[in-house]
UniProtKB/TrEMBL annotation:
Chain coiled-coil ranges: none
Keywords per UniProt: Membrane, Signal, Transmembrane, Transmembrane helix
Region (Disordered) residue spans: 354-374
Domain of life: Bacteria
Presence of the UniProt keyword Transmembrane helix in the record: yes
The protein's name: Terpene cyclase/mutase family protein
InterPro entries, per database record: Terpenoid_cyclase/PrenylTrfase
Signal peptide: 1-26
Organism: Streptomyces durmitorensis
Residue ranges of the TM segments: 378-397
SUPFAM superfamilies: Terpenoid cyclases/Protein prenyltransferases
Signal is among the record's keywords: yes
Length: 406
């Protein structure tokens, strides 16, 4: 996976039709031989559908691990911002102004806000992006992948994280109808019966919600007002009981219960739900679940799942590239584990190797564990191939790539 992608992708397919679906299952993308990648960009896969997203994840993960990213990497990210404050997934020529053809992306914008707010010194850029996010808030109080798209739990969750990172109170971010994102989340939560209280993902053809672990992790994280950097819980919460989701708090409790039950069935990790796959372990969504569970005070399960990741994520991360290493660093942080000794791997060193050498790092920590080189190609599905051809929509981040895939 290349982190938090598939749910919004599928939601977009539902909106714009299924013609793009076959292209969505391409496993990876290589750079065009005629196009040189920007020197400040992390990863060596084609950035067309995930450049801003993976860069934001990489910079935020570095900052969380005490690493000061290369100046040109930060400059590349800020240079992608449009005058309105919004970000597209990637702009090959950032010198050209954004216009009516620019496919603005709430997920790219929200991830950039989280990274730039953490790095500091980017108040103007952060403020502009938050203003743009507020301007495209839906009538129900939530967000979709792009302006005009229906709200989904994944997009709403990552935007809440951005608002929190920028010093906003998400519950106070209301549209003209007085709706906040906490009004949108309960409507995206499902019943306690056969749906288990999960947050839903819209079916491509009917638009009907169906239970989805990735949407659930994003919804739980958002309902707790958390971004991608989640501190370990210092007190274990009681096992939540499922009830009618009249509030975002109850929707989060229901979703937490769904994750606990789902993880318990499959030895502390999730399985891929991507149609047409052989149901492999879903590493990326498991990592997302660690963040959600830590935010919900379910630290024991968060740690168990993180320990599973430490034993089973190396090959996935090597294939997937910078966003995957970043996601594992986020999970390690939430579980109270050392990202520089994660199943014997130094995730920080491996992430740093994916792009320009950082300005500064904790050398003592880097030397603590000599790990394998984490070079690799960022893996993510190219729903955008079909969408660009048909309607110009690029890669959607909102759910982790179900394909492993995050």
């Amino acid at each position: 996976m290349n982190v938090r992608r598939s749910a919004a992708v599928l939601a977009a397919v539902a909106v714009f039709g299924s013609a793009a679906a076959p292209a969505a299952f391409a496993e990876s993308a290589s750079p065009s031989p005629s196009a040189a990648l920007p020197s400040g960009l992390y990863g060596d896969a084609d950035p067309k559908f995930d450049g801003v997203f993976r860069q934001s994840y990489a910079l935020l993960a570095q900052d969380s691990a005490g690493v000061k990213p290369a100046a040109k990497s930060v400059d590349w990210l800020t240079g992608q911002q449009c005058a309105s404050g919004g970000f597209a997934a990637y702009r090959a020529d950032a010198g050209e102004p954004c216009d009516s053809k620019t496919m603005f992306d709430s997920n790219a914008t929200a991830s950039a806000v989280q990274a730039l707010a953490a790095l500091g010194g980017q108040d103007k850029a952060v403020k502009k992006s938050v203003g743009w996010l507020k301007s495209v808030q839906n009538k129900d109080g939530g967000w979709g992948y792009g302006p005009g798209m229906d709200s989904d739990a994944n997009s709403t969750g990552i935007v809440i994280g951005a608002l929190t990172a920028a010093g906003e109170k998400p519950q106070s971010v209301k549209n003209q109808d007085g709706k906040s994102p906490y009004d949108a989340l309960p409507a995206l939560s499902m019943s306690c019966g056969k749906d288990g209280g999960a947050f839903g993902l819209a079916d491509m053809k009917t638009g009907k919600l169906f239970p989805n672990a990735d949407a659930t992790a994003a919804g739980v994280l958002g309902a707790h007002g958390k971004g991608l950097i989640v501190d370990p819980a210092n007190k274990e919460a009681a096992t939540p009981k499922c009830a009618k989701a009249d509030t975002a708090e109850q929707a989060a409790a229901n979703g937490t219960g769904y994750l606990l039950k789902t993880l318990a069935k499959t030895d502390d990790h999730l399985m891929s739900a991507l149609p047409g796959t052989k149901v492999p372990p879903d590493v990326g969504n498991t990592a997302d679940s660690v963040l959600a569970l830590a935010a919900a005070g379910q630290q024991k399960q968060a740690e168990k799942s993180a320990q599973w990741l430490a034993k089973n994520s190396a090959e996935w991360a090597k294939k997937s590239g910078p966003a995957a290493y970043a996601q594992l660093i986020f999970a390690a942080h939430a579980a109270g584990m050392d990202p520089r000794d994660f199943g014997g791997a130094d995730l920080v060193k491996q992430l740093n190797a994916q792009g320009p050498a950082p300005q500064a790092t904790d050398q003592a920590a880097d030397e603590k564990k000599d790990s394998d080189d984490g070079s690799g190609v960022s893996i993510w599905w190219i729903i955008g191939v079909g969408m660009v051809a048909g309607i110009g929509i690029g890669f959607l981040y909102s759910g982790n790539k179900k394909k492993q895939q995050l």
